[in-house]
Amino acid sequence: MALSFAEFKAALQADEAALAARQTVTGILACVACEEPLQESVTGSRHTHKGYMCSDCYFEELGRELDAHPIMTPRAVR
Ligand SMILES: [Zn+2]
Predict the structure, then answer these.
(1) DSSP H helices in the chain
(2) Is the dihedral of CA 62, 65, 66, 71 positive or negative?
(3) How many Å lie between the centroid of ligand 1 and the Cα of residue 67?
(4) Are 18 and 7 in contact (CB under 8 A)?
């Protein structure tokens, strides 16, 4: 069923209001960590083994992993 222009505009405004209130609307994924609706240009959208995450949660998680497992260069054996 096709939407009329007025119906489409009302649906768009309802989605914008929901996103502003940080509620996920149909067709938009939410961050698996903080449940914020993911918008590529606003929150970022990064695919991880847990699911999609916003950039803030992704780098927070990456920082925790690096603290737990630091990257070290092996010493030369002489
Ligand atoms: Zn997040």
Answers:
(1) 5-20, 55-68
(2) negative
(3) 19
(4) no
Centroid of ligand 1 to alpha carbon of 49 (angstroms) = 14
Question: pLDDT tens digits, residue range 21-72?
Answer: 777 777 788 899 998 889 899 999 999 999 999 999 999 999 999 999 998 8
pTM above 0.85, yes or no: no
- For the chain, how big is the Rg over CA atoms in Å? 20
Distance (angstroms) between ligand 1 centre and the Cα of 32 equals: 7
- DSSP label at 12? H
**55 CA from centroid of ligand 1 (Å):** 7
